[in-house]
Specification:
- 39% of the residues lie in helices and 15% in strands.
- By secondary structure, the chain is α/β, with parallel strands linked by helices.
- Helix 7 packs across helix 10.
- Bound molecules: zinc ion (2 copies).
- One zinc ion (ZN) binds next to helix 6.
């Protein structure tokens, strides 16, 4: 017989003295249960044959449960708290924290139950339902951020287009007509557009109650006939006691027999200023801001 001492001299130090036989009295391949006192401090029973096959302390390796040392309840309290009632009568004290076995878990957050290996749970794997929700939340946040960026880009583009359109409109006589029309209607007085009235020829903006008219005269490049026509209009107004106010370009010809207000340039400020002056002459105080009222003015341009 070849004794355990002979074959595994390095392990005999763990052979417990409480065993009836010594390592020199037992065969290295014996199936007799022997008590071992591991260098780790644990005590367990194993056959010499098993020990010879490289089996060490079953508590340290996690193969056996030692309550208070390697059971799930002692090692991972939080994981053990999610132990499902479905696993009963097995409890977290009866399994090791490193066990490969699968058990049921009940999520402390969402209450759902799922099956997973204890070892995976000990390594930090959590509830798959909560993980899915968290993932969806992250995706949603990403989608929201993307949408927000698109919205702000679209918004900026709209603002840019509006600014471009506004700048273009300011150069345009039809827009100026729309501006005068809009503010004329805001005065609360009756205003008549381009109708043959008291003097027999049309006036652009005629205020019967004020006995006054506004003419936008920025187009005079047609020739002498036009000048004579406009001058005749001035005379007719003068003779009919109609106060005629003409808006003329900064460098344009100044008419006689009427009031002339110059439009300095095609900026919004110049237009605001000039129109304020015009309405002042009509004794109608007006708060004029073509940018502020741009959308409302544009409606007059389109109809
Ligand atoms: Zn041990
Ligand atoms: Zn959950």
């Amino acid at each position: 017989m070849r004794s355990f001492l002979e074959i595994h001299p390095n392990l005999v130090s763990e052979w417990s003295p409480v065993n009836e036989l010594g390592p020199d009295q037992v065969s290295y391949g014996s199936n007799k249960p022997i008590i071992w006192n591991g260098v780790c401090g644990h005590t367990w029973t194993a056959t010499p044959k098993n020990r010879g096959n490289n089996h060490g302390c079953p508590y340290c390796s996690g193969n056996k449960v030692l309550v208070g040392y390697n059971d799930l309840a002692s090692v991972h309290q939080g994981v053990a708290a999610e132990w499902s009632a479905r696993n009963l009568p097995t409890t977290p004290r009866q399994v090791t924290a490193r066990s490969d076995k699968s058990f049921w878990w009940k999520c402390s957050t969402c209450g759902n139950e799922w099956k997973a290996r204890i070892a995976d749970r000990s390594e930090g794997h959590g509830c798959p339902f909560c993980a899915a929700v968290a993932l969806e939340k992250r995706w949603q946040a990403r989608r929201d951020a993307k949408q927000k960026l698109l919205d702000s880009k679209r918004h900026n583009r709209l603002i840019q287009n509006r600014q471009k359109q506004f700048a273009k409109d300011l150069e345009n006589n039809a827009f100026r007509i729309a501006v005068i029309r809009y503010y004329s209607e805001q005065t609360g007085y009756l205003v008549v557009y381009d109708q043959i009235g008291r003097i027999g020829i049309p006036l652009q903006f005629f205020f019967p109650e004020k006995c006054a008219a506004i003419e936008l005269t920025s187009h005079l490049k047609k020739g002498w006939k036009d000048w004579r026509y406009e001058n005749a209009k001035n005379w007719l107004c003068l003779n009919s006691d109609i106060k005629l106010i003409r808006i003329i370009p900064q460098t344009g010809y100044k008419f006689e027999n009427c009031k002339c207000v110059r439009l300095k340039n095609s900026s919004a400020e110049a237009l605001n200023y000039t129109l304020t002056q015009v309405f002042k002459r009509l004794k109608i105080p007006m708060d004029i801001d073509v940018l502020r009222d741009y959308d409302k003015i544009r409606r007059y341009l389109e109809c």
